[in-house]
Prior knowledge:
With about 130 residues, the protein is of the alpha/beta class. It has one domain (about 10-125): Rossmann fold (3-Layer(aba) Sandwich). It has five helices and four strands, in the order E-H-E-H-E-H-H-E-H. It has a four-stranded parallel β-sheet, sandwiched between helices.
Amino acid sequence: MVIITMSSEKPAFIMCVCTGKCPGFEKMDIWDFINTIRMVLPVKHGIIHPQLCEEDGDRYLEDVLRQGQKVFIGGCAPAMQYKLFRDAFEKRGLNVKTDLVPIDVRDMTTDEAIEKVTGELKKNGYDIQ
């Protein structure tokens, strides 16, 4: 059973796979990963985007970002995510430093990545039981 205590609004989860060719995702089955995230963890939805740092990624973020909803992004280094997604967050009136939870899941197995996302959800106040 999943109990959410932080907010009645579940966070969004987006997996950015760097076109699916990044060697950093070789050990992960991205389909098992995203299916576990969206079906087991307390997220509003879990999706995979091929490359959020491209123009269509910015447009996608601008379409889906909403005030009051945290966004967890699995992908590259957090420092890079803050830089890459700052403009899209600002266009929607959000603060990338407080509304984005960047999670570096490169070079992890599927289970390791799920564990890391679970830990980040817990750290941000979402109880998982």
